[in-house]
Design a protein that fits this description.
By secondary structure, the chain is mainly alpha-helical. The protein has a domain of about 45 residues: Arc Repressor Mutant. It has four helices and two strands. It has a two-stranded antiparallel sheet with strand order 1-2.
């Protein structure tokens, strides 16, 4: 009986481990690149969107600018 010689598995990097996951395609970037930014789609409740639009109007900002600012502040403060 012959035994096959196999290579020792190489340690995986975090990125290769994540990209090999079964649901990795769901995480893949799908947005359109516009300059240095990536366009995304956001689903939001109509009542919340009305509040976002009202606040953006009061602040003299666009909806997108207000959402970007909110996300930036949340990320920079690590959620709290």
């Amino acid at each position: 009986m012959q035994m096959a010689i196999t290579r020792k598995p190489q340690p995986k990097t975090v990125d290769s481990f994540i990209s090999a996951a079964p649901d990795a395609q769901a995480i893949a970037r799908k947005g359109v690149i516009r300059g240095k930014k990536e366009q995304i789609t956001l689903t939001i409740a109509p009542e919340m969107l009305a509040k976002v639009d009202a606040l953006a109007l009061r602040m003299g900002q666009s909806r997108a600018a207000l959402i970007n600012l909110a996300v930036f502040r949340l990320v920079e403060n690590e959620g709290g």
